[in-house]
Design goal:
Blueprint: H1 19-25, H2 34-50, H3 59-69, H4 74-89, E1 102-113, E2 116-127, E3 134-142, H5 151-167, E4 173-179, E5 184-186, H6 188-192
Parallel strand pairs: 3-4
Antiparallel strand pairs: 1-2, 2-3, 4-5
Helix pairs in contact: 2-3, 2-4, 3-4
């Protein structure tokens, strides 16, 4: 059962003024491609914020540490801040980061499906009004404002959902993208109909 799943292992941080903070919260890769750096930084801030030590640190410090870790310039650091704040202020997205309302939550959750090892950005189990049962949510972070229009993103989300369904048979599993604009885009019907 996923409720007993251990947390994902930490990653290595690059040295710098906020390296001690980054080291205490989780680690990052040594080198990140510029095109992926902003997305990686967003993932890292959300992971830290929703982790056991995140709420002990001001959000501004977490964003500064991620910006430094991934070598973001001022423009990309501002975009990171806008995205993080949009997500955490969103009435649709924020509940997935409120530990007190979740039965279970994990970041960078490792799963396997059809011989592929994958990591789910965020996986939560929570009570859904009107559902009568706990629901698992597979959440994939994307900076793209319309990730549900990209076939490769949908296929990836379908794989994540199928892996969770295999581990939690008979339990409801929904799938959604969380965008950098603070939108929750549920794709359960879209991915459910994709071929395996």
């Amino acid at each position: 059962s996923l409720l007993r799943l251990p947390p994902a292992p930490p990653r290595q941080a690059r040295p710098g003024p906020d390296a001690e903070l980054a080291h205490s919260l989780g680690r990052g890769p040594e080198v990140v491609d510029d095109s992926a750096a902003l997305g990686e930084a967003l993932h890292r801030v959300l992971e830290w914020w929703s982790g056991p030590q995140g709420l002990r640190q001001p959000l501004e410090r977490l964003m500064a540490a991620a910006s430094q870790m991934y070598g973001l310039d001022a423009r990309r650091s501002e975009r990171l801040e806008r995205s993080v704040r949009a997500i955490l202020a969103s009435a649709d997205c924020a509940p997935f980061f409120e530990a007190a309302t979740l039965r279970w939550a994990g970041n960078e959750v490792p799963v396997s499906w059809q011989g592929q090892d994958m990591r789910i950005d965020r996986l939560v189990c929570r009570d859904e009004p009107g559902e009568g049962a706990a629901v698992w949510w597979v959440l994939d972070y994307k900076l793209n404002p319309a990730p549900h229009t990209q076939a490769e993103y949908l296929a990836q989300l379908r794989g994540y959902r199928a892996a969770v369904q295999a581990m939690q048979p008979g339990e409801p599993v929904r799938a959604a993208f969380i965008t950098g604009q603070g939108r929750l885009i549920e794709c359960t019907p879209l991915v459910a109909d994709l071929p395996a």
